[in-house]
What we know:
single chain, alpha+beta, Nuclear Transport Factor 2, Chain: A, six-stranded mixed beta sheet
Amino acid sequence: MGGGHDLEAIKQLKARYFRLMDTKDWDGLRDVFTSDVAIDMSAEGGGVTHTFSDFLPFLQNAIGGVTTVHHGHMPEITLTSESQATGIWAMEDMLWWPENGPLRHMHGYGHYHETYRRTPDGWRIASMTLTRLHRLLEP
Length: 139
């Protein structure tokens, strides 16, 4: 299997995911996923979707008007074949709502559990589940 180059490509992919989400670049964000991506945001009230187009309305509603900062740490990535991999990322996120939002601030901690697939355009996220360990809420 590809080894170091593939691991670095997957790390770059996840870094791009965080940057595009925080800058609200929805078109760019679409390109980090496979066309049949399964995204499980049940812990966030979003359920499970099977395409980015199905996921996007939830994402825009949840954070479209919110200032966000997401960090991914300490990836555990395993190449399972020439074209597939799994990964777990420790994550931390901070969200600030505009005045009169449902909250003022949230600081969260958890993990992204993912699978990746190599496509003709490079590595893409094929499935993603967010789990939470803790949330600090400021009403």
